[in-house]
Amino acid sequence: MTYTIPFLLCLALPLAAIAGDTPPAPERQRELVHLVRQECGFCHGLRLTGGLGSPLTVDAMKHKPLDTMTAVILHGIPGTAMPPWQPFISESEAVWIVRQLQEGFPP
Selecting from 3.40.1390.10, 1.10.760.10, 3.30.2270.10, 3.90.226.10, what CATH number does the domain 25-103 have? Predict the structure, then answer.
């Protein structure tokens, strides 16, 4: 049954794109912008140009796969300073954040 896991992963990957089709409510968007600017900015720089973490600028993010970046936000990167944010944000909110980073993050 080694085919089961890759097959399920193929089915699950498009879900991140679907989850982001409905943007968060305006108040939640403001909270997410604040979260990214403050919490993510702690490692990625307050202007998101990099620091301990890599840059999150449009140029750095525009070609990154949506599903991969969503997974990184939600689950973190073990063995690095990148923590999992899933306890604090939903999958659709993580998708929204990635899309905003790819388009130019709001001030």
Answer: 1.10.760.10
